[in-house]
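Appendix B, record 7
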Amino acid sequence: MSALAIAANGLRKSYGDKVVLDGIDLAVPEGTVFSLLGPNGAGKTTAVNVLSTLVRADAGELRVGGHDLAEEAQAVRAAIGVTGQFSAVDNLITGEENMLLMADLHHLSKAEGRRVAAALLERFDLVEAAKKPASTYSGGMKRRLDIAMTLVGSPRIIFLDEPTTGLDPRSRHTMWGIVRELVAGGTTVFLTTQYLEEADQLADRIAVLNNGRIAAEGTASELKRLVPGGHVRLRFTDPVAYRSAASALRGATRDDEALVLKIVSDGTQQELHTILDWLAAVSIEADELTVHTPDLDDVFFALTGNGKLPGQPDQPKEILR
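Structure tokens (predicted):
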């Protein structure tokens, strides 16, 4: 069992009468990507702000990097890096100057600061732009510079709060590569995002935050299995073939106007073989066969619509551990 980079038990935070985090538990092993999903206002940024020592929790036992958040805040800050929703880049100075400024903040010597800055600018493909004002950078370049600045202090844990918001697909994929590279080097990444594909691609574990509580947590595969709705879709162009298939498949959901049948299925190879064998046996040919399995979109909407899955109690709670 890996050591925990982040451990939170009963984390609570309110602003006045507004409860933002209502006693959440988090456990993030070292060297993994943990993604916190949730709609706007769910409390994702508040969780990051608390765990990165920017905001004090109202209650909870919290440890980051092995340090107690309440008693050893300075040690926690030395172990972490934070890239927020809004860029920390100073647009009035060059990329290199931004890096050197960060090196000064980490009390590196002039020589060490220049060495670290040069290495990170090269690592993030910013050497050609290093002498140019940051105001001339594209959104993707600024985001890369932002993370490069975060890495100046060699943090073991990095909080990325919606790091790809507003980026084009190419820049987003570049950022994904950077995250994978960081984790391959042993860094722990705590990622908040509104992009479900991003969490699916990157995260070892995902928690869905809704109404201040963890509605569900698990791997992407585990979360997808929580949601019903997998089916095989058969589309016909011949009305006679459609009616014959519909008559034989009494359990299928019919769409007589579109000539479509939906058969409940988990999409396994065995089930697909069964359906294809049956069609061949009765000499019925579907013009199109497609398989739909629940994805993180389905999980997200099921959990953040009314805060529960079918059959789940009214009070949201963590389903998987």
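Remarks on this record: The chain has two domains: 4-89+137-225, 231-292. The chain has eleven helices and 14 strands.
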